[in-house]
Amino acid sequence: MEVCGTHTVAVFRHGIRGLLPESIRLLSGPGCPVCVTSIKDVDTAVALSKVSGVVLVTFGDMMRVPGSSRSLYEAKAEGADVRVVYSPLDALKIASENKDRRVVFFATGFETTSPLVAATLFEAEKEGIENFYIYSVHKLVPPALKALLDSPEVNVDGFILPGHVSTIIGSRPYEFIGKDHGIPSVITGFDAKDILEGILMLLKQLDAGMSDVQIQYRKVVREEGNPRAVATINECFKPSEVYWRGIGTIPESGLILKDKYRKRDITEIVNVDVPEGSEPKGCSCGEVLRGVKLPTECALFAKKCTPETPVGACMVSTEGSCAAYYRYRSG
Q1: Domains plus CATH for the chain?
Q2: In whole angstroms, what is the distance from residue 211 CA to residue 80 CA?
Q3: The pTM is what?
Q4: How far apart are CA 146 and CA 77, in angstroms?
Q5: What is residue 31's predicted lDDT score, i.e. its pLDDT?
């Protein structure tokens, strides 16, 4: 299983599936933060965007993720002040220029983006920008892998672990994969050579009966990761139970603000009552994210569900498994 959505796209772009023997099957995992953001979290962001005096700021790939009734893109079309940025610091700049508004950054992503959000919170405190808030739906990768491995329906012989996330956390948080489950894993880069070498390293481990965490992506990833980035996360956030779309509620897999920064949590300031949303009828995003189904096995794939008219989140992001399968399906 390649966990990272960027790996999924790279596998298709380089035609790697066509180079592998039939005995090796690649599955896509839950490594797309857009895809695992729950319907309720999208609905909450939409509801916040409609509160008077609120500017909702987000990354572009969150705009078209379907909620239970509408996306942020549709909320913007209906008059909500929703803005797209490339960095949390851009959201902070909007707050500094609109001090009569509450500016809320929809904080999505894994361990790769959470240090940036934490650093932005530090800057907000330093500059005294009191109208800057976040709605945190950050998630942590290792607990999700544990949840997958604890599920009887998931059948994986090895993991291609995410390169970007691992630059932050290193290899040690994944050691449970081998110790508790006897499954080998390799952290790889994103070039064709990187991925193929990672697969070869997995096969060699399997042949030798090994179940280690190995690093192919040595030019970027260290065993200890980036201690400064991890410390930045830990200064602002603490782990919490959170719901992953398609997987369910996973303990200690989300990040919420610590008490020192709780005043920056928009849900502490603005109360929006959002009911639980249900998955679209016929959508197999959940099974795809768990590696139980391939996107092409979904009845809606390339029919009712396309990048132009996405039904599920996996068809929205460029890192989504369904979007990658759709774009490269002719190969």
Answers
A1: 2-28+140-215 (3.40.50.11750), 35-139+226-269 (3.40.50.11740), 285-328 (no CATH)
A2: 50
A3: 0.91
A4: 40
A5: 87
